[in-house]
Write a structure and sequence with these properties.
88 residues; 56% helix
């Protein structure tokens, strides 16, 4: 094992390893900028979606109508799945 480590110690390092730190730092900077842009895009999408929902809810409003009470003894239940369940 000592011989192998001595051999590795004598070998010159590839030139690409010298620039490795710069490439990693550059890639981290790009990733950080992309994260900031994505956060802004998601914030804009949330604001537009909430604003659109509030606008649509306030512009398109119909007056509230009370529903007729449901009763098992009603002559014809609109919610009955078949005519066999009609209370007659």
């Amino acid at each position: 094992m000592d011989d192998e480590l001595r051999i590795l110690g004598r070998v010159d390092l590839p030139a690409a390893l010298d620039a490795l730190d710069d490439r990693v730092v550059r890639a981290l900077g790009v990733r950080r900028r992309e994260a900031v842009v994505m956060r802004r895009v998601m914030t804009l999408a949330a604001v537009l979606s909430l604003g659109g929902g509030i606008f649509a809810g306030s512009v398109v409003s119909r007056p509230a109508v009370a529903a007729s009470p449901l009763s098992p003894l009603a002559p014809a239940s609109a919610l009955a799945p078949s005519s066999l369940l009609d209370a007659q």
